[in-house]
Amino acid sequence: MTDDAIWQPLRVELARWADANRCARFWLRDDDAVRPTDALERLLALGNAHGVPLTLAVIPAHTGAALAVRLDDEDGVTVVVHGWSHENHAPENEKKQELGPHRPREVVLGQLREGRELIEDIFLRRYVPILVPPWNRIDPLLVQALPGLGFEALSVFGPVKAKHAAFLPVINTHVDLMDWHDTRGCRDHGELAAAIVKELQQRFAGGDEPIGILSHHLVHDQSAWAFLHDLFKMIAETPGARWVSPPELMVSPQD
Q1: How does strand 54-58 pair with strand 24-33?
Q2: Domains of the chain by range and CATH?
Q3: Between helices 38-50 and 222-237, what is the axis angle to 10°?
Q4: Residue 140 in 3-state DSSP?
Q5: Which residues contact 50 (CB under 8 A, 6 or more apart)?
Q6: Residues with Cβ within 8 Å of residue 63, at least 6 apart in sequence
Q7: How far apart are CA 155 and CA 153, in angstroms?
Q8: pTM of this prediction?
Q9: How does DSSP classify residue 125?
Q10: SS3 letters for 11-62?
Q11: Is residue 246 within 8 Å of residue 27, measured between CB atoms?
Q12: What is the pLDDT along the chain (255 residues), one digit of tens a residue?
């Protein structure tokens, strides 16, 4: 383990969970996969070394058989649908969105249906019917149509919103490794560890929502890889936490 001053608060919090005979659940979602790359190989190796199940959000319009063949024997990997083409359709004065209100509803829903069918067909047993909207944004009016398109869950970023959970299970991510607004590299490790501790403290006080870690293997710098390694190692060494995969998390809103 690296700098103990960074990791000690997280170690202490996980020990509190273990002492209370509780186990915090984590899951890992990695966005924007389309084909085999050296970065993907590194992510797969890291996850396998520590027993971490990986959820790859794959862009339907840009993927193909090469990625499916590579993942065929990766039993710890699930594949979900990352929009259609990860193309922004919002004007310059708005945040980027592919699944916003900027195009005819039938066009957007048609692409989502096609994307789901394509991912299911290509990835077969790796596929799980979860939609991950590009940029973690989706028009609420589209969410109600997702079950009719074959989606069984939605995954964005941040706390679960009632306007999403009213229609299907929501399995969100909460801690993003990357600093998108400044350096575009990995965030400070102490800041990331503190963010995870905060999420754990909220769960300890009440609620059992899994903590989603969000990564983007195609743009990781060395600092991002180092953080994932240290996080994987810590969780593997403590009885107060474990990694879970989406099939375990997909329960109905009534459950």
Answers
A1: parallel
A2: 4-249 (3.20.20.370)
A3: 20
A4: helix
A5: 232, 233, 235, 236
A6: 33, 34, 35, 119, 122
A7: 7
A8: 0.94
A9: G
A10: HHHHHHHHHCCCCEEEEEEEEEECCCCHHHHHHHHHHHHHCCCEEEEECHHH
A11: yes
A12: 456 889 999 999 999 999 999 999 999 999 999 999 999 999 999 999 999 999 999 999 999 999 999 999 999 999 999 999 999 999 999 999 999 999 999 999 999 999 999 999 999 989 999 999 999 999 999 999 999 999 999 999 999 999 899 999 999 999 999 999 888 999 999 999 999 999 999 999 988 899 999 999 999 999 999 999 999 999 999 888 999 998 888 754 434
Residue type for 144, please?
Q
User: CA nearest 57: which of 185, 255, 246, 251?
Assistant: 246
Q: How far apart, in whole angstroms, are the C-alpha atoms of residue 55 and residue 182?
A: 26
Closest residue by Cα to residue 180 from 62, 96, 83:
96
Cα torsion through 228, 233, 239, 245, rounded to 10: 40
The letter for the amino acid at 39 is A
2 CB-near residues (< 8 Å, 6+ apart):
189, 226, 230
